[in-house]
Amino acid sequence: MPTIADRLKNVSISASAAMTQRARELAAQGVNVISLSAGEPDFASPTHAVEAAHAAALAGDTKYPTMDGTPALKAAISRKFKRENNLDYDASQIVVCGGGKQVIFNAMLATCNPGDEVVIPAPSWISYADIVKFAGALPVQVACPQEAGFKLRAEDLEAAITPRTKWLFLNFPNNPTGAACSRAEMKAIADVMLRHPHVWIMTDDIYEHLIYDDFEFCTIAEVEPRLYDRVLTVNGASKAYAMTGWRLGFCGGPKDLISAIANVNGQNGGGTATVVQAAAAAVLDGPQDLLFERAAIYKQRRDFVLSELAKIDGLKCHKPEGAFYIFPNISGLIGKTSKGGRKIESDTDFVMALVNEHHVATVQGAAYGMSPFFRISYATSMEKLTEACARISQFCAELR
Ligand code: PMP
Protein backbone atom coordinates (compact mmCIF):
# COMPACT_ATOMS: atom_id res chain seq x y z
CA MET A 1 0.00 0.00 0.00
CA PRO A 2 1.16 3.58 -0.61
CA THR A 3 1.79 5.35 2.70
CA ILE A 4 1.40 8.78 4.29
CA ALA A 5 4.54 10.86 4.89
CA ASP A 6 6.46 10.48 8.14
CA ARG A 7 6.30 14.24 8.68
CA LEU A 8 2.62 13.90 9.57
CA LYS A 9 3.28 11.43 12.38
CA ASN A 10 3.69 14.12 15.03
CA VAL A 11 1.08 16.52 13.73
CA SER A 12 -2.27 16.34 15.50
CA ILE A 13 -5.83 17.37 14.66
CA SER A 14 -6.47 20.51 16.70
CA ALA A 15 -8.35 19.86 19.95
CA SER A 16 -10.50 22.95 19.44
CA ALA A 17 -11.56 21.66 16.02
CA ALA A 18 -12.25 18.25 17.62
CA MET A 19 -14.42 19.87 20.31
CA THR A 20 -16.26 22.00 17.74
CA GLN A 21 -16.94 18.75 15.86
CA ARG A 22 -18.26 17.07 19.06
CA ALA A 23 -20.58 20.06 19.61
CA ARG A 24 -21.88 19.69 16.04
CA GLU A 25 -22.54 15.97 16.55
CA LEU A 26 -24.55 16.67 19.70
CA ALA A 27 -26.45 19.45 17.93
CA ALA A 28 -27.26 17.05 15.06
CA GLN A 29 -28.86 14.74 17.67
CA GLY A 30 -31.13 17.61 18.69
CA VAL A 31 -29.15 18.61 21.80
CA ASN A 32 -29.05 22.35 22.62
CA VAL A 33 -25.25 22.76 22.74
CA ILE A 34 -23.54 26.05 23.48
CA SER A 35 -20.18 26.22 21.79
CA LEU A 36 -17.51 28.29 23.50
CA SER A 37 -14.78 26.35 21.72
CA ALA A 38 -14.14 28.26 18.50
CA GLY A 39 -11.73 31.20 18.34
CA GLU A 40 -13.94 33.12 15.98
CA PRO A 41 -15.78 36.46 16.22
CA ASP A 42 -19.56 36.09 16.10
CA PHE A 43 -19.93 39.40 14.22
CA ALA A 44 -20.51 39.74 10.48
CA SER A 45 -17.70 40.85 8.17
CA PRO A 46 -17.93 44.59 7.42
CA THR A 47 -20.31 45.47 4.58
CA HIS A 48 -17.63 47.53 2.85
CA ALA A 49 -15.41 44.41 2.67
CA VAL A 50 -18.17 42.48 0.92
CA GLU A 51 -18.83 45.40 -1.43
CA ALA A 52 -15.14 45.79 -2.30
CA ALA A 53 -14.84 42.07 -3.11
CA HIS A 54 -17.97 42.24 -5.23
CA ALA A 55 -16.75 45.32 -7.10
CA ALA A 56 -13.35 43.71 -7.73
CA ALA A 57 -14.98 40.58 -9.15
CA LEU A 58 -17.29 42.62 -11.40
CA ALA A 59 -14.33 44.69 -12.58
CA GLY A 60 -12.56 41.51 -13.72
CA ASP A 61 -9.95 41.46 -10.96
CA THR A 62 -10.07 37.68 -11.15
CA LYS A 63 -6.76 36.64 -12.71
CA TYR A 64 -3.92 34.82 -10.98
CA PRO A 65 -2.58 36.85 -8.06
CA THR A 66 1.07 37.73 -7.60
CA MET A 67 2.76 35.52 -5.01
CA ASP A 68 3.44 38.36 -2.57
CA GLY A 69 0.22 40.44 -2.66
CA THR A 70 -1.36 43.17 -4.78
CA PRO A 71 0.38 46.57 -4.78
CA ALA A 72 -2.86 48.19 -3.54
CA LEU A 73 -3.16 45.89 -0.53
CA LYS A 74 0.54 46.08 0.29
CA ALA A 75 0.25 49.88 0.28
CA ALA A 76 -2.73 49.66 2.66
CA ILE A 77 -0.78 47.27 4.93
CA SER A 78 2.20 49.62 4.91
CA ARG A 79 -0.10 52.47 6.02
CA LYS A 80 -1.62 50.23 8.72
CA PHE A 81 1.81 49.37 10.16
CA LYS A 82 2.77 53.06 10.22
CA ARG A 83 -0.53 54.33 11.62
CA GLU A 84 -1.12 51.68 14.28
CA ASN A 85 2.34 50.38 15.15
CA ASN A 86 4.69 53.18 14.14
CA LEU A 87 6.57 50.64 11.99
CA ASP A 88 8.03 51.39 8.56
CA TYR A 89 7.59 48.48 6.14
CA ASP A 90 7.67 49.28 2.43
CA ALA A 91 6.18 47.05 -0.29
CA SER A 92 9.34 44.92 -0.52
CA GLN A 93 9.01 44.12 3.20
CA ILE A 94 5.42 42.83 3.10
CA VAL A 95 3.84 39.53 2.04
CA VAL A 96 0.14 38.69 1.91
CA CYS A 97 -0.91 35.07 2.54
CA GLY A 98 -4.08 33.05 3.10
CA GLY A 99 -4.41 33.85 6.81
CA GLY A 100 -1.98 34.52 9.62
CA LYS A 101 -1.67 30.75 9.84
CA GLN A 102 -0.27 30.51 6.32
CA VAL A 103 2.14 33.37 7.00
CA ILE A 104 3.59 31.44 9.94
CA PHE A 105 3.60 28.15 8.04
CA ASN A 106 5.42 29.71 5.09
CA ALA A 107 7.89 31.49 7.38
CA MET A 108 8.81 28.25 9.15
CA LEU A 109 9.15 26.35 5.88
CA ALA A 110 11.35 29.16 4.57
CA THR A 111 13.73 29.18 7.54
CA CYS A 112 13.79 26.00 9.62
CA ASN A 113 16.33 23.23 9.19
CA PRO A 114 16.19 19.86 10.95
CA GLY A 115 17.28 20.28 14.56
CA ASP A 116 16.44 23.97 14.75
CA GLU A 117 14.55 24.98 17.88
CA VAL A 118 11.60 27.34 18.15
CA VAL A 119 10.86 28.83 21.55
CA ILE A 120 7.12 28.99 22.18
CA PRO A 121 5.77 30.61 25.35
CA ALA A 122 3.08 28.27 26.75
CA PRO A 123 0.18 28.08 26.88
CA SER A 124 -0.04 28.90 23.21
CA TRP A 125 -2.20 28.57 20.14
CA ILE A 126 -2.39 24.89 19.23
CA SER A 127 -1.05 25.29 15.70
CA TYR A 128 2.35 26.77 16.56
CA ALA A 129 3.93 23.50 17.68
CA ASP A 130 2.37 21.56 14.81
CA ILE A 131 3.60 24.05 12.21
CA VAL A 132 7.10 23.97 13.69
CA LYS A 133 7.14 20.16 13.60
CA PHE A 134 5.84 20.22 10.04
CA ALA A 135 8.84 22.34 9.11
CA GLY A 136 11.14 19.74 10.69
CA ALA A 137 12.10 21.88 13.69
CA LEU A 138 11.62 21.33 17.40
CA PRO A 139 9.12 23.30 19.50
CA VAL A 140 10.57 24.30 22.90
CA GLN A 141 7.85 25.38 25.30
CA VAL A 142 8.47 27.93 28.03
CA ALA A 143 5.80 28.08 30.72
CA CYS A 144 4.12 31.43 31.41
CA PRO A 145 2.47 30.60 34.74
CA GLN A 146 -0.85 31.95 35.94
CA GLU A 147 0.94 33.57 38.92
CA ALA A 148 2.89 35.66 36.37
CA GLY A 149 -0.34 36.70 34.63
CA PHE A 150 0.46 34.15 31.89
CA LYS A 151 3.27 36.41 30.67
CA LEU A 152 6.72 35.41 29.47
CA ARG A 153 9.33 36.09 32.14
CA ALA A 154 12.76 37.25 30.99
CA GLU A 155 14.63 34.67 33.08
CA ASP A 156 12.58 31.78 31.69
CA LEU A 157 13.15 33.00 28.14
CA GLU A 158 16.88 33.38 28.74
CA ALA A 159 17.08 29.79 30.03
CA ALA A 160 15.29 28.40 26.96
CA ILE A 161 17.60 29.86 24.31
CA THR A 162 20.37 27.61 22.95
CA PRO A 163 22.74 27.87 19.98
CA ARG A 164 20.11 25.88 18.01
CA THR A 165 17.32 28.39 18.65
CA LYS A 166 16.05 29.78 15.33
CA TRP A 167 12.91 31.61 16.40
CA LEU A 168 11.10 33.03 19.39
CA PHE A 169 7.31 33.22 18.97
CA LEU A 170 5.35 35.96 20.73
CA ASN A 171 1.56 36.21 20.89
CA PHE A 172 0.25 38.89 23.22
CA PRO A 173 -2.75 39.35 23.50
CA ASN A 174 -2.57 35.59 23.76
CA ASN A 175 -4.62 32.65 22.69
CA PRO A 176 -5.68 30.92 25.01
CA THR A 177 -5.13 33.19 28.05
CA GLY A 178 -5.94 36.69 26.76
CA ALA A 179 -2.77 37.97 28.47
CA ALA A 180 -1.12 41.02 26.89
CA CYS A 181 2.24 42.62 27.66
CA SER A 182 2.83 46.16 28.80
CA ARG A 183 5.61 48.13 27.14
CA ALA A 184 7.89 47.48 30.13
CA GLU A 185 7.20 43.74 30.01
CA MET A 186 7.88 43.69 26.26
CA LYS A 187 11.08 45.65 26.80
CA ALA A 188 12.30 43.02 29.27
CA ILE A 189 11.74 40.33 26.60
CA ALA A 190 13.47 42.52 24.02
CA ASP A 191 16.49 42.98 26.30
CA VAL A 192 16.97 39.21 26.41
CA MET A 193 16.71 39.01 22.64
CA LEU A 194 19.32 41.73 22.13
CA ARG A 195 21.78 39.32 23.75
CA HIS A 196 20.95 36.54 21.24
CA PRO A 197 21.51 37.89 17.74
CA HIS A 198 21.14 34.47 16.07
CA VAL A 199 17.42 34.29 16.86
CA TRP A 200 14.52 35.63 14.80
CA ILE A 201 11.33 36.80 16.49
CA MET A 202 7.87 36.12 15.11
CA THR A 203 5.25 38.29 16.78
CA ASP A 204 1.69 37.19 16.07
CA ASP A 205 -0.35 40.35 16.65
CA ILE A 206 -3.64 38.95 15.40
CA TYR A 207 -5.47 40.04 18.61
CA GLU A 208 -4.00 43.56 18.54
CA HIS A 209 -7.37 45.30 18.43
CA LEU A 210 -9.06 43.14 21.05
CA ILE A 211 -7.75 44.86 24.13
CA TYR A 212 -9.63 46.31 27.10
CA ASP A 213 -9.58 48.78 29.99
CA ASP A 214 -7.31 51.22 28.13
CA PHE A 215 -4.50 48.65 28.12
CA GLU A 216 -2.06 49.77 25.44
CA PHE A 217 -1.06 47.22 22.82
CA CYS A 218 2.62 47.17 21.87
CA THR A 219 4.69 45.13 19.44
CA ILE A 220 8.34 44.20 19.83
CA ALA A 221 9.87 45.82 16.71
CA GLU A 222 8.44 49.14 17.80
CA VAL A 223 9.36 48.74 21.48
CA GLU A 224 12.98 47.89 20.61
CA PRO A 225 13.96 49.28 17.18
CA ARG A 226 17.37 47.56 17.45
CA LEU A 227 15.50 44.28 16.89
CA TYR A 228 13.66 45.55 13.78
CA ASP A 229 15.88 43.55 11.37
CA ARG A 230 15.12 40.29 13.17
CA VAL A 231 11.39 40.66 13.69
CA LEU A 232 8.57 39.27 11.59
CA THR A 233 5.41 41.19 12.50
CA VAL A 234 2.35 39.08 11.66
CA ASN A 235 -1.25 40.24 11.54
CA GLY A 236 -4.45 39.61 9.60
CA ALA A 237 -8.10 40.40 9.00
CA SER A 238 -9.65 37.41 10.81
CA LYS A 239 -10.04 38.57 14.39
CA ALA A 240 -10.08 42.36 14.14
CA TYR A 241 -12.52 42.56 11.23
CA ALA A 242 -14.44 39.30 11.76
CA MET A 243 -13.16 37.92 8.45
CA THR A 244 -12.04 34.41 9.44
CA GLY A 245 -13.50 32.73 6.37
CA TRP A 246 -11.86 35.08 3.88
CA ARG A 247 -8.37 33.76 4.76
CA LEU A 248 -6.25 36.87 4.79
CA GLY A 249 -3.04 37.40 6.73
CA PHE A 250 0.08 39.46 6.21
CA CYS A 251 3.46 40.21 7.63
CA GLY A 252 6.16 42.84 7.64
CA GLY A 253 9.83 42.06 8.10
CA PRO A 254 13.36 42.21 6.75
CA LYS A 255 13.57 42.04 2.93
CA ASP A 256 15.47 38.75 2.61
CA LEU A 257 13.15 36.93 4.95
CA ILE A 258 10.12 38.42 3.22
CA SER A 259 11.26 37.30 -0.23
CA ALA A 260 11.92 33.78 1.11
CA ILE A 261 8.39 33.70 2.56
CA ALA A 262 6.96 34.99 -0.74
CA ASN A 263 8.88 32.27 -2.54
CA VAL A 264 7.28 29.56 -0.38
CA ASN A 265 3.90 31.27 -0.77
CA GLY A 266 4.28 31.08 -4.55
CA GLN A 267 4.44 27.28 -4.32
CA ASN A 268 1.98 26.95 -1.45
CA GLY A 269 -1.31 28.19 -2.86
CA GLY A 270 0.24 30.60 -5.33
CA GLY A 271 -1.00 33.81 -3.71
CA THR A 272 -4.15 35.02 -2.00
CA ALA A 273 -7.47 35.35 -3.86
CA THR A 274 -7.57 38.72 -5.64
CA VAL A 275 -11.09 39.64 -4.51
CA VAL A 276 -10.15 38.86 -0.90
CA GLN A 277 -7.18 41.19 -1.21
CA ALA A 278 -9.50 43.94 -2.49
CA ALA A 279 -11.74 43.42 0.56
CA ALA A 280 -8.76 43.55 2.92
CA ALA A 281 -7.51 46.82 1.41
CA ALA A 282 -11.00 48.26 1.92
CA VAL A 283 -11.11 47.37 5.62
CA LEU A 284 -7.55 48.47 6.39
CA ASP A 285 -8.10 51.85 4.72
CA GLY A 286 -11.75 52.17 5.73
CA PRO A 287 -13.43 53.53 8.86
CA GLN A 288 -12.03 51.92 12.02
CA ASP A 289 -14.91 52.74 14.40
CA LEU A 290 -16.11 49.15 14.34
CA LEU A 291 -12.92 48.06 16.12
CA PHE A 292 -13.76 50.22 19.13
CA GLU A 293 -17.45 49.38 19.08
CA ARG A 294 -16.72 45.66 19.06
CA ALA A 295 -13.98 45.89 21.68
CA ALA A 296 -16.55 47.52 23.99
CA ILE A 297 -18.92 44.60 23.42
CA TYR A 298 -16.18 42.01 24.05
CA LYS A 299 -15.17 43.81 27.22
CA GLN A 300 -18.73 43.67 28.53
CA ARG A 301 -18.83 39.94 27.82
CA ARG A 302 -15.44 39.35 29.44
CA ASP A 303 -16.50 41.18 32.59
CA PHE A 304 -19.77 39.26 32.76
CA VAL A 305 -18.17 35.81 32.32
CA LEU A 306 -15.40 36.63 34.80
CA SER A 307 -17.89 37.72 37.44
CA GLU A 308 -19.98 34.56 36.93
CA LEU A 309 -16.93 32.26 37.05
CA ALA A 310 -15.70 33.99 40.21
CA LYS A 311 -18.79 32.66 42.00
CA ILE A 312 -17.88 29.04 41.22
CA ASP A 313 -15.96 27.10 43.88
CA GLY A 314 -12.90 25.37 42.49
CA LEU A 315 -12.23 27.74 39.56
CA LYS A 316 -9.45 30.30 39.66
CA CYS A 317 -9.40 32.92 36.88
CA HIS A 318 -6.89 35.54 35.85
CA LYS A 319 -8.40 38.71 34.36
CA PRO A 320 -7.24 38.83 30.72
CA GLU A 321 -6.14 42.11 29.15
CA GLY A 322 -7.27 41.14 25.66
CA ALA A 323 -8.36 38.61 22.99
CA PHE A 324 -11.69 36.87 23.61
CA TYR A 325 -10.64 34.02 25.87
CA ILE A 326 -10.65 33.20 29.56
CA PHE A 327 -8.44 30.39 30.86
CA PRO A 328 -9.71 29.19 34.27
CA ASN A 329 -7.57 26.99 36.49
CA ILE A 330 -9.49 23.88 37.61
CA SER A 331 -6.95 22.38 40.01
CA GLY A 332 -9.57 22.72 42.78
CA LEU A 333 -11.83 20.26 40.96
CA ILE A 334 -9.34 17.54 40.04
CA GLY A 335 -10.13 14.21 41.74
CA LYS A 336 -13.88 14.81 41.88
CA THR A 337 -16.55 12.83 40.01
CA SER A 338 -19.26 14.30 37.79
CA LYS A 339 -22.95 13.57 38.28
CA GLY A 340 -22.77 11.39 35.17
CA GLY A 341 -20.03 9.31 36.84
CA ARG A 342 -16.90 10.59 35.08
CA LYS A 343 -13.84 10.88 37.30
CA ILE A 344 -12.19 14.28 36.69
CA GLU A 345 -8.53 13.36 36.59
CA SER A 346 -7.51 15.92 33.97
CA ASP A 347 -8.75 18.98 32.15
CA THR A 348 -9.65 16.70 29.23
CA ASP A 349 -11.99 14.73 31.56
CA PHE A 350 -13.43 18.06 32.71
CA VAL A 351 -14.28 19.42 29.25
CA MET A 352 -15.61 16.06 28.02
CA ALA A 353 -17.90 15.65 31.04
CA LEU A 354 -19.03 19.28 30.68
CA VAL A 355 -19.95 18.92 27.00
CA ASN A 356 -21.58 15.50 27.40
CA GLU A 357 -23.54 16.22 30.58
CA HIS A 358 -24.29 19.96 30.39
CA HIS A 359 -23.70 20.61 26.69
CA VAL A 360 -21.19 23.43 26.86
CA ALA A 361 -18.22 22.99 24.52
CA THR A 362 -14.87 24.38 25.72
CA VAL A 363 -11.25 23.23 25.15
CA GLN A 364 -8.88 21.55 27.60
CA GLY A 365 -5.72 23.42 28.62
CA ALA A 366 -3.64 20.37 27.67
CA ALA A 367 -4.24 21.25 24.01
CA TYR A 368 -2.44 24.57 24.58
CA GLY A 369 0.36 23.10 26.64
CA MET A 370 -0.83 23.95 30.17
CA SER A 371 -2.93 21.89 32.61
CA PRO A 372 -5.24 21.75 34.47
CA PHE A 373 -7.07 24.61 32.76
CA PHE A 374 -9.77 25.04 30.16
CA ARG A 375 -10.35 27.72 27.55
CA ILE A 376 -13.59 29.59 27.18
CA SER A 377 -14.12 31.71 24.07
CA TYR A 378 -16.59 34.50 24.87
CA ALA A 379 -17.00 35.54 21.24
CA THR A 380 -20.72 34.81 21.39
CA SER A 381 -23.94 36.54 22.49
CA MET A 382 -24.66 37.59 26.09
CA GLU A 383 -27.71 35.37 25.97
CA LYS A 384 -25.61 32.28 25.21
CA LEU A 385 -22.92 33.31 27.69
CA THR A 386 -25.53 33.70 30.43
CA GLU A 387 -26.90 30.21 29.78
CA ALA A 388 -23.39 28.72 29.43
CA CYS A 389 -22.23 30.19 32.75
CA ALA A 390 -25.32 28.81 34.49
CA ARG A 391 -24.60 25.36 33.07
CA ILE A 392 -20.89 25.47 34.02
CA SER A 393 -21.90 26.56 37.51
CA GLN A 394 -24.38 23.70 37.86
CA PHE A 395 -21.89 21.19 36.47
CA CYS A 396 -19.23 22.26 38.98
CA ALA A 397 -21.71 22.31 41.87
CA GLU A 398 -22.67 18.72 41.10
CA LEU A 399 -19.06 17.47 41.25
CA ARG A 400 -18.51 15.24 44.28
N1 PMP B 1 -2.72 33.22 15.56
C1 PMP B 1 -3.46 32.97 16.65
C2 PMP B 1 -2.87 33.19 17.99
C3 PMP B 1 -4.77 32.51 16.52
O1 PMP B 1 -5.49 32.27 17.62
C4 PMP B 1 -5.30 32.29 15.23
C5 PMP B 1 -6.70 31.80 15.00
N2 PMP B 1 -7.23 30.96 15.92
C6 PMP B 1 -4.49 32.56 14.14
C7 PMP B 1 -3.21 33.04 14.33
C8 PMP B 1 -4.94 32.29 12.74
O2 PMP B 1 -5.49 33.38 12.15
P1 PMP B 1 -5.86 33.38 10.61
O3 PMP B 1 -7.33 33.21 10.53
O4 PMP B 1 -5.40 34.73 10.16
O5 PMP B 1 -5.14 32.28 9.94
TrEMBL record:
InterPro entries: Aminotransferase_I/II_large, AspAT/PAT-like, NHTrfase_class1_PyrdxlP-BS, PyrdxlP-dep_Trfase, PyrdxlP-dep_Trfase_major, PyrdxlP-dep_Trfase_small. Its cofactor is pyridoxal 5'-phosphate. Residues 32-392 form the Aminotransferase class I/classII large domain. GO terms for molecular function: L-aspartate:2-oxoglutarate aminotransferase activity. It comes from the Bacteria. Gene3D superfamilies: Aspartate Aminotransferase, domain 1, Type I PLP-dependent aspartate aminotransferase-like (Major domain). It catalyses: L-aspartate + 2-oxoglutarate = oxaloacetate + L-glutamate. Its EC number is 2.6.1.-. It holds the Pfam family Aminotran_1_2. Keywords: Aminotransferase, Pyridoxal phosphate, Transferase. PANTHER family: ASPARTATE AMINOTRANSFERASE. Belongs to the class-I pyridoxal-phosphate-dependent aminotransferase family. This is Aminotransferase.
